[in-house]
Amino acid sequence: MYIDGHWISDRDTFTVFNPATGEKIGEVIDGNASDARSAIDAADRASATWSSTTAYERSQILYRTHQLMMKEQSALAELMTTEQGKPLKAANNEVKYAGDFLLWYAEEAKRIYGETIPSARADQRFLVHKQPVGVVAAITPWNYPISMITRKLAPALAAGCTVVLKPAESTPLCAVAVIKLLEEAGLPSGVVNLITGRDPQPIGDEFCTNPKVKKLTFTGSTAVGKALAQKCAPQLKRVSMELGGHAPFIVFDDADPVHAAKGVSLVKFLNTGQACISPNRIFVQRSLLEPFLNTLSQRVSALKAGNGLHPENSIGPLINERALEKVEKQVNDAIAKGAILHAGGSRETGDGLDAGFFYSATLLSNVNPEMIIYREETFGPVAAVIPFDNEDEVIDMANDTHYGLAAYIYTNNLSRGLRVFEQLNFGIIGVNDINPTSAAAPFGGMNESGLGREGAREGINEYLETKLGGFSI
Ligand code: ADP
């Protein structure tokens, strides 16, 4: 843990394990609510000085952190694969993506513009001023253990906020590595503080109820996000929430089924399906089902599960036993209710995989609304294909969820692409595109997928207050 510029080491610890091998890879401090309080106090003390530094000074620290992160890219990627499980290539991509937020907000820090607004009164001037919200508490998940940290910290620091970070209990070592880079880049004491802990609830409760915390930013499950938002409500604390998704992937009959199947195979199995923008319901127009499934089943059968440190493996482990059981339950339920299994469908064992949480890349077709997988986010390597007959029907099916994060459309008809884009109730939509994300683009969900946006110009607004001055002259 890192509080007020000091690494805390004289406390009980908990163990961090490699999800591919079950091996112990490190120990971190088991922090509690009182540690969270000390960190909030430190962030509060640092706030006055940090918020009055120039945007140029804050920008320099973010630039330096970006440079250090890129210098350490391979080492950070290896740590990530060991702690979280994703294949090394994907881990390298994530470190690059994490660095993109540092760079983007190093630039954006200098563009926190206010406004003057004409008044109806000749003797009055309106001035709109932006200022940092103050102390920010950030809670981050394990699936993207470095980029989800920089996506919050970079805009918060650029805006002039100070931060207390609590990373996921499965991936605290990646968080420690990021904080070390900020420290090396010259971030003053107290501006960012790190609380690690085995039990997130008491730390989260302190974040939500301590009046010195002005804003909570959270990425994780919808259930936890809702509970945290409720705890923040009595103080009307500002919240940003990046929560679960249940992404539809719609393939229309005017698309190339082979190209679309390739797209699904690339995006669905990224991070072993453990992404909130992972396609969870793949709607394919009936006349394309056969060529689509032929290509997809070939590609899915070729995906090899195993330790992500070895380049031949593209399916890493799930994060823990609970995640594995959830996938098993969804697949078994679907098969029992009539889904057709084309590939995978079981836990991977033998060949050194027994101690890890491996599940084979799986393809199901004939999925219908009676099945759990049709309604619930899977967060695992399962592609679930559902047939449809026409455009209106598939728009209704796609929108029939309380989530609203990502969606994908494959069509070669421009009018249809635009029409469906406008009618889908999702915050991020890829049209013939499987990667509609970037530090330069606003990421976030509608409905129960969240509140607020991360990345882009919008991302910094989450950490700014608008102050209006009315001047009589
Ligand atoms: P998942 O189920 O995918 O692990 P969570 O929403 O449980 O997703 O975890 C995301 C983050 O939320 C992690 O940092 C975790 O420690 C934290 N978290 C989980 N439960 C709570 C809670 N009750 N209060 C505060 N933070 C929590």
Describe the protein's architecture and organization.
Helix 14 links the parallel strand 17 (406-410) and strand 18. With 473 residues, this protein is of the alpha/beta class. Helices cover 39% and strands 21% of the residues. The protein has helices at residues 33-51, 55-71, 73-84, 88-108, 147-159, 172-184, 200-209, 222-232, 257-268, 289-301, 321-336, 372-375, 391-399, 414-423, 456-461, and strands at residues 2-3, 6-7, 13-17, 24-29, 115-117, 124-132, 135-139, 162-166, 192-194, 213-219, 238-242, 247-251, 279-285, 340-343, 362-365, 382-388, 406-410, 428-431, 450-451, 464-472. It folds into 2 domains: 2-243 and 447-472, 3-Layer(aba) Sandwich (Aldehyde Dehydrogenase, Chain A, domain 1); 247-431, Aldehyde Dehydrogenase, Chain A, domain 2. The protein has a 7-stranded mixed beta sheet with strand order 14-15-16-13-12-17-18, sandwiched between helices. Strands 9-8-7-10-11-19 form a 6-stranded mixed beta sheet, sandwiched between helices. The radius of gyration is 23 Å and the shape is globular. It starts with a strand and ends with a strand. Helix 1 crosses helix 7 and helix 7 packs parallel to helix 8. Bound molecules: adenosine-5'-diphosphate.
Write the layout of secondary structure elements.
Blueprint: E1 2-3, E2 6-7, E3 13-17, E4 24-29, H1 33-51, H2 55-71, H3 73-84, H4 88-108, E5 115-117, E6 124-132, E7 135-139, H5 147-159, E8 162-166, H6 172-184, E9 192-194, H7 200-209, E10 213-219, H8 222-232, E11 238-242, E12 247-251, H9 257-268, E13 279-285, H10 289-301, H11 321-336, E14 340-343, E15 362-365, H12 372-375, E16 382-388, H13 391-399, E17 406-410, H14 414-423, E18 428-431, E19 450-451, H15 456-461, E20 464-472
Helix pairs in contact: 1-7, 2-4, 2-5, 2-6, 3-4, 4-5, 7-8, 9-10
The chain binds adenosine-5'-diphosphate.
Residues 139-141, 166, 168-169, 200-201, 204, 220-221, 224, 227-228 line the site of adenosine-5'-diphosphate.
